[in-house]
Amino acid sequence: MRERDLIARIRSHNAALDGVPGLDVPVPPGDDMALVRFGDGHVLVAADQVIEGRHFLRDTPMDLVARKAIARNVSDVAAMAAVPRATVATAALPRGMVDQDVEALADGLRRWAAHWGCPMVGGDVGVHAGDGPLVVSVSILAQPGPTGRVITRAGAAAGDLLCVTGALGGSLAPDGRGRHLTFEPRVGPALALAAELGDRLHAMIDVSDGLARDAGHLAAAAGRAVEVDPSRVPCTHGTGWQGALADGEDHDLAFACAGPPPAAVGGVPVTVVGRFVAHAPGAPLVVAIDGARRIPADDAGWEHRT
Amino acid sequence: MRERDLIARIRSHNAALDGVPGLDVPVPPGDDMALVRFGDGHVLVAADQVIEGRHFLRDTPMDLVARKAIARNVSDVAAMAAVPRATVATAALPRGMVDQDVEALADGLRRWAAHWGCPMVGGDVGVHAGDGPLVVSVSILAQPGPTGRVITRAGAAAGDLLCVTGALGGSLAPDGRGRHLTFEPRVGPALALAAELGDRLHAMIDVSDGLARDAGHLAAAAGRAVEVDPSRVPCTHGTGWQGALADGEDHDLAFACAGPPPAAVGGVPVTVVGRFVAHAPGAPLVVAIDGARRIPADDAGWEHRT
Q1: Rounded CA gap, A31 and A85, in Å?
Q2: Residue A19 — very low, low, confident or very high, per pLDDT cuts 50/70/90?
Q3: Pick from A214, A244, B48, B195: CA 20 to 30 A from residue B124's CA?
Q4: pLDDT tens for residues B233-287?
Q5: Residue B168's closest CA among B154, B178, B153, B176?
Q6: Are A167 and A273 in contact (CB under 8 A)?
Q7: What stretches in chain B show pLDDT beneath 50?
Q8: Which residues pair with A290 in a beta bridge?
Q9: ipTM score
């Protein structure tokens, strides 16, 4: 089974929480975070991991491994326009990992978690019995922002504009380095968008799977389709629009809003790259508009078909 | 560095949260769970993992792997006399893991989490790039029980009795099976103890590192010492008192109470096995009383010295 299919299957199973007595989850699994009622308030929670060989290479400095493990989670908080509050982490360490690296990892996790306002309050560390790569798993708790509103993936209306913050593509450099290790989670811009746009902000996601796919997530969650104009997609230096649409691990924001967005939020530019439309049964969720051509762009690898 | 030293170093670092602005953590890292203020309420949070080869063998049925991953976390909730509310999980899968096992793991995690009242509301799954063992990391959210009081590791007074629920030792069978895969987290008994004993319940922990070590954690957290009578320690069938004191992964409760405990809570027997005393500087934290002999029993392996 392909990993993507696997994840989709597990996620779809996870969404079936209806039968759980007493559970109050206003935002269920499948979004960037789940929202769980606690007493009179709400807690947002999510978990994400980094695996050596998949999310970072063996020679990556431990401080950057720690940074990415925390930042991926903080980016999920940004996607909900929420405020990071606390983290916990577990690490499965390679047997031969030197003390200096272990300390650097632990220090890095603590420091980056505190940096983004979600101090590490607990966790566990274990050492592999045989050969095994470093696996760092982080869970994050967050609370709704000052508006009290949590922005989910669902809610795009036909006519809404698809917008992105920053620039996309080329996050994962061929040598394993690149922006995926150093991106800045967009917590501040997300809170600013929620405040400035108010009810005009309909849905949001962080771009982790590539814009085409993540725009498709927004479309699917709302029962709409989305048309993307590749020529308008802001590309990072050296990246073509194919990369900007298909590359993952950007961790900028994609959002649906009614009417024009601000030109920038929190110092980060905002660009309109498409719009949501009604979805006809059987039609693609994501269509790239290339001059007169309409190119179905659902799912990964669509760029290989153009 | 030995794993235990490593964990101790990381935990001690984690306890240094004083410098984090705006953080309100009435129970900081180092206890079974951290307590974090959220709005008007509190959330308890912890994380724990199971690593193939360390916490289960490769041929362990996936349902039992999932059970243990969840149960270890639920046991941390029991140790605080709290109520499990929600879980999130990440899994790093071996490349060759067959679909059936992946489904069984995902189903098991969902089912056991719901079974103990803490449905799985989110998570992430990834596949190792090369060889790599299964690593399942679970984080759990809990809320204080009906008494509103959270029972920490600290608080044992000189004269308090050291008590345990159930029976100890031999949880990890030589063939990899055993009670460590099937133990019942003591959430109900812990809540019953908090309700019945009230302010007489001074401190609690779940026995995961072996009674000698975990009693030492209670003693250290309170600045006391503890005397254990090995002849009174309830042993599982086939286990001697050395095993009952030194074996880990029992996940029964050890607690400090003023005056006699109930004979049983929630159908689980309670046994008085020792008492807390004043701690003289330089003296051992844990002493086993063997007739007229006083045997220092701090830390692992003390049984090899008898």
Answers
A1: 19
A2: very low
A3: A244
A4: 999 888 888 888 888 889 999 999 999 999 999 999 999 999 999 999 999 999 9
A5: B178
A6: no
A7: 1, 16-21, 300-306
A8: A293
A9: 0.92
Residues 6+ apart with CB under 8 A from B306: B242, B288, B290, B295
Return the axis-axis angle of helices B62-79 and B187-197, rounded to nearest 10°.
10
Q: Is A139 close to B139, i.e. CB distance below 8 A? A: yes
A47 and B90 in contact by Cβ < 8 A? yes
Distance from CA of A291 to the nearest CA of B (A): 38
Q: Token pair of B68, please?
A: 């243990």
- Cβ contact, residue pair A29, B121, below 8 Å: yes
Q: Indicate yes or no: CB of B48 within 8 angstroms of CB of A90.
A: yes
A290 Cα to chain B: minimum distance (Å): 34
Q: Specify the pTM.
A: 0.92
Contact at 8 Å (CB) between B249 and B180? Answer: yes
Cβ atoms of B120 and B109 closer than 8 Å: yes
pLDDT value, residue A107: 93
pLDDT on residue A18? 42
Q: What is the largest CA-CA distance in chain A?
A: 59
Please tell me the predicted confidence (pLDDT) of residue B238. Answer: 82
Q: Cα torsion at B156, B162, B165, B168 (round to 10°)?
A: 120
3-state class (DSSP) for residue A242: helix
Q: Structure tokens of B93?
A: 């899968």
For all residues of chain B together, what is the average pLDDT? 89
pLDDT tens per residue, range A47-91: 999 999 999 999 999 999 999 999 999 999 999 999 999 999 999
Give chain B positions within 8 Å (CB) of A70: none
Closest CA to A109 of A159, A171, A66, A71: A66
Residue whose token pair is 């966790």: A123
**Residue A265's Cα: distance from chain center in Å?**
18
Q: Is A104 on the interface with B (CB under 8 A)?
A: no
Q: What are the structural domains, with CATH classification, of chain B?
A: 26-144 (3.30.1330.10), 161-305 (3.90.650.10)
